[in-house]
Backbone:
């Protein structure tokens, strides 16, 4: 009796575990056109079209001449491809009295973004390292203020910063804007680096201390070489964030230093003259090109970066 | 034991760990001077009648009274409320549904994700300008639908004061839902697969598993996402500037733009400070309960 | 001569006391093991000695020099960690030489020391490799080498073998012992593994809740545990405990437990056992004899479970209303249900006061 019962159980168990193994590819659907698949893929494709449509329209519009835009449909592919709007957007479009196109804004953005990214990451990574490995009394308090501060609307702090920068004599200059980007990049980057360094094995840090390495030696020779991925993530975060900034560009720089976003907005939304939609769209694409390139090249790391940036640690 | 060596004396607490303290100076300055100091400064000066330059001439709640009497501010607040409400609801619902779809072990997951997330790489300025073009009544979606034969079709949010905020909402959702989807997907992926197996063995239908088991388990992700979306909503500025410049008229004004305009264009600093303090209060209303739930309440349980 | 000396050491994290006025003297060339379960403070103590944690109170002397507030590098110590803690981006050679480079030791001297350490540990072929290309055992050898090149007298080991599988662990255990025999320097070794402790140590400090429970050589710890905790912690399976009352009859002492009287006259008590005293009688599984002919004080018990282990046989039985284990050498089988006669070797048993839990 006992034997039969236990055998029966074994068989039942085997069958159950077999079914479990077969589960995903068994009776449930792997057939291409199950109703479930149609719903899932159908929805995703429709949604994807919604996301892609603006990009498509931008590109198509930028390749048409104005006459064609006036008579045609914004979704229609260009009958006659012209790159003239691109040339015009880059080199000739006017903002106010300047008619040297977006190129000026582009180079301004480069001159803003490169030092801002480097300095903000350098400062924040050292902050994060100190917080993770060299905690001192009060460090956590400042860090908490920093993180809470990340939620304060920028508008609340803008004017005091204007005053501070004016006192330092850098208001309106690129230096001032770099400082502002370093300040406002600090909460999220510090969090990012602190969590990353805290995740590294603590014994490694202890071993280095027994080996006689100090604060900076450990940072440069032990931590930095181990942390390239997080530096890449931080770079992606900062390059796109700073390139896309508009508010700080308007508030903290003079017109000759306006970044590309500000200049783009001034070109497109300028009230003078005839609206040249093709030039506007070409200019818009040009402005979006840098972050888009970063996005498509970095792929998975970008997702990691924004997730890291978005989710608190 | 040989007497006093260097190691027998407890070093000065201020000098211990000195390098770390020096390295933290930028952080300390930012936290104390900019975040605490700057915020306090703005709040204090919101009670003054500063015009072109900040002056410490207190006028009590004058600025606030003027603020709440200004039609433009009221419209800004109303817009923020409408935009905020729909933005929250749609972001969370769309984001979650998309994430759930993406979590069905589908093929081309990377392609779909790349497509849904790319708008997030673009600035609000670019987003605003693209949608300005798409919603252009003369050439955009409205004219296309009309040319298809539905000649009475009207969809011109950017030229219609009543619905202009929804035009901005569409652009914002296009830009931001990909991020919400990614956060939700990460949350879904973090759930133990055995939960799904257990639910399936128990014969619980999929939608019920989501509603009764998965979503409650994702409480943390939902709250975090909520806070991110909400603090983004309060800051909304560039998008409006690019897409409508606050128009038609003042129909699509938002608080952040009100602050900027009064501080830097109208040279009425006091109004700008008062308005920005109100923004701060709004954020505090969102953040404080969250911080309490996340940290205060959690500690007691732990 | 003392090598490392800890005086009244206390450590608090906020309101939590991790170490409480701890004293410990370690002789030059001694192998001392700090043994205890996780959270007992043993690693904390080691980190304090290394200078990786600031103490709240008390002093630490190394070679009669007060190092309480000195940097780890200035204390004349080398340390080996559980996770090896090798710098992943450096080759084995650079891992070994990093500390010396930081200390600006001349290159020729560095080369000499690295070469010697590599010879001792037989890792010469690995010098050009990265840690990720090494096995766990090789990594731990390199980690030991890193302490070796520092040319110091005190080695600190923080659970160095816990991340290795059982076979490697016993191999490296022997190697560490061999290293100690040839270097003859002071070693302080933290572990939760009693086999490591018993096999390696000159002396073992058994710790619980930040307090040293007993500090003695391994055999004393094993044979004469100072209190109930040490008795239960050392030995596997655990010592059998019987709670009962002392009873004097006809000039002999008994411990009566649930109707069974154990004759403890042969027990070498430090203080005289008082009749009526509540005590705990402890007998190791290997100190119980089964079916011994001519044993005077024998008790009948029934075998519940038998675990044959090859070299010996482990029996689980019920006696005096409680479960107990017996370890028998040899391969003789005792099927469940069979009845045996048990006699205890009271000469090596332990008796503790039930209240103070101290050895009597």
Residues:
């Amino acid at each position: 009796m006992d034997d039969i019962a236990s055998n029966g159980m074994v068989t039942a168990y085997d069958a159950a575990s077999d079914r479990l193994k077969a589960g995903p590819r068994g009776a449930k659907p792997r057939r291409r056109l199950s109703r479930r698949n149609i719903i899932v893929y159908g929805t995703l494709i429709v949604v994807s079209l919604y996301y892609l449509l603006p990009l498509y329209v931008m590109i198509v519009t930028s390749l048409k001449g104005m006459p064609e835009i006036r008579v045609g449909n914004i979704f229609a592919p260009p009958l006659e491809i012209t790159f003239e709007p691109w040339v015009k957007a880059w080199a000739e479009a006017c903002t106010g009295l300047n008619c040297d196109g977006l190129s000026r804004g582009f180079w301004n953005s480069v001159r803003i973004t490169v030092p801002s990214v480097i300095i903000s990451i350098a400062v924040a990574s050292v902050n994060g390292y100190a917080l993770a490995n060299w905690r001192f009394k009060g460090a956590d308090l400042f860090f908490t203020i920093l993180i809470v501060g990340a939620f304060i609307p920028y508008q609340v702090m803008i004017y005091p910063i204007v005053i501070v920068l004016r006192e330092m004599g850098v208001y309106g200059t690129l230096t001032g804007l770099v400082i502002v980007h370093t300040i406002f990049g600090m909460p999220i980057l510090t969090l990012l680096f602190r969590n990353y360094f805290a995740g590294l094995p603590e014994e490694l840090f202890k071993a280095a201390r027994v080996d006689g390495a100090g604060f900076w030696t450990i940072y440069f020779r032990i931590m930095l070489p181990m942390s390239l991925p997080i530096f890449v993530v931080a770079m992606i975060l900062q390059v796109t964030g700073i390139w896309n900034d508009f508010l700080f560009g308007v508030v903290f720089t003079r017109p000759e230093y306006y970044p590309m976003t500000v200049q783009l907005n001034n070109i497109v939304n300028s009230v003078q003259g005839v609206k040249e939609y093709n030039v506007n769209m070409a200019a818009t694409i040009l402005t979006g090109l840098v972050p888009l390139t970063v996005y498509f090249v970095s792929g998975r790391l970008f997702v990691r970066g924004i997730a890291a940036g978005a989710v608190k640690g | 034991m040989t007497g006093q060596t260097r190691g027998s004396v407890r070093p000065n607490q201020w000098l211990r760990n000195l390098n770390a303290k020096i390295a933290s100076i930028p952080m300390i300055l930012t936290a104390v001077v900019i975040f605490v100091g700057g915020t306090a400064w703005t709040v204090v000066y919101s009670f003054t009648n500063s015009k072109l330059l900040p002056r410490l001439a207190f006028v009590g709640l004058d600025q606030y009274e003027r603020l709440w009497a200004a039609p433009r501010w009221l419209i800004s607040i109303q817009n923020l409320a409408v935009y905020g409400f729909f933005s929250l609801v749609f972001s969370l619902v769309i984001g979650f549904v998309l994430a759930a779809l993406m979590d069905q072990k589908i093929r081309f997951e990377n392609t779909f994700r790349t497509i849904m997330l790319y708008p997030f790489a673009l600035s609000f300025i670019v987003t605003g300008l693209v949608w300005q073009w798409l919603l252009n009544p003369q050439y955009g979606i409205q004219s296309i639908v009309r040319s298809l034969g539905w000649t009475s079709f009207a969809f011109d949010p950017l030229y219609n004061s009543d619905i202009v905020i929804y035009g901005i909402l569409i652009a914002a959702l296009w830009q931001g839902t990909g991020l919400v989807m990614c956060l939700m997907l990460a949350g879904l992926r973090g759930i133990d697969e055995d939960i799904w197996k257990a639910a399936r063995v128990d014969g619980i239908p999929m939608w019920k598993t989501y509603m009764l088991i998965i979503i409650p388990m994702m409480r943390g992700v939902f709250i975090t996402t909520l806070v991110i979306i909400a603090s983004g909503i309060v800051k909304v500025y560039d998008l409006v500037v690019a897409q409508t410049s606050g128009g038609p008229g003042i129909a699509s004004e938002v608080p952040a733009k009100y602050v900027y305009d009064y501080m830097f264009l109208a040279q009425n600093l006091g109004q700008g400070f008062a308005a920005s303090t109100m923004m701060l209060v709004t954020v505090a209303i969102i953040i404080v309960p969250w911080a309490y739930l996340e940290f205060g309440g959690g500690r007691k349980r732990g | 001569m003392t090598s490392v000396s800890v005086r009244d050491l206390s450590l608090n994290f906020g309101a939590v006391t991790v170490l409480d006025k701890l004293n410990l003297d370690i002789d030059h060339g001694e192998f001392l093991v700090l043994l205890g379960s996780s959270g007992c403070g043993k690693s904390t103590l080691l980190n304090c000695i290394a200078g990786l944690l600031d103490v709240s109170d008390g002093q630490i002397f190394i070679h009669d020099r007060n190092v309480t507030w000195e940097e780890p590098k200035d204390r004349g110590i080398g340390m080996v960690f559980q996770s090896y803690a090798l710098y992943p981006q450096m080759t084995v050679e650079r891992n070994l030489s990093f500390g010396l480079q930081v200390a600006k030791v001349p290159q020729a001297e560095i080369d000499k020391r690295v070469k010697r350490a590599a010879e001792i540990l037989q890792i010469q072929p690995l010098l050009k490799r990265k840690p990720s290309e090494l096995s766990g055992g090789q990594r731990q050898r390199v980690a030991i080498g890193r302490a070796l090149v520092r040319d110091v007298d005190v080695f600190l080991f923080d659970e160095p073998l816990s991340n290795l599988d059982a076979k490697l662990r016993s191999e490296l255990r022997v190697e560490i012992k061999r290293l100690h025999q040839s270097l003859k320097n002071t070693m302080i070794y933290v572990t939760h593994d009693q086999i490591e402790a018993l096999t390696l140590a000159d002396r073992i400090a058994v710790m619980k809740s930040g307090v040293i429970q007993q500090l003695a050589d391994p055999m004393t710890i094993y044979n004469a545990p100072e209190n109930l905790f040490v008795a239960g912690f050392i030995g596997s399976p655990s010592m059998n405990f019987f709670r009962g009352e002392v009873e004097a009859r006809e000039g002999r002492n008994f411990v009566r437990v649930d109707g069974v009287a154990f004759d403890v006259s042969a027990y070498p008590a430090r203080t005289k056992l008082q009749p009526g005293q509540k005590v705990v009688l402890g007998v190791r599984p290997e100190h119980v004899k089964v079916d011994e002919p001519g044993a005077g004080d024998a008790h009948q018990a029934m075998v519940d479970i038998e675990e044959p282990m090859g070299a010996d046989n482990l029996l689980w039985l019920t006696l005096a209303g409680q479960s107990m284990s017996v370890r028998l050498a040899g391969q003789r089988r005792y099927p469940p249900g069979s009845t045996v006669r048990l006699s205890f070797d009271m000469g090596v048993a332990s008796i503790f006061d039930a209240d103070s839990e101290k050895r009597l």
In short: Chain C has two domains: 2-233, 240-353. The radius of gyration of chain C is 25 Å. Chain C is about 25% helix and 35% strand.
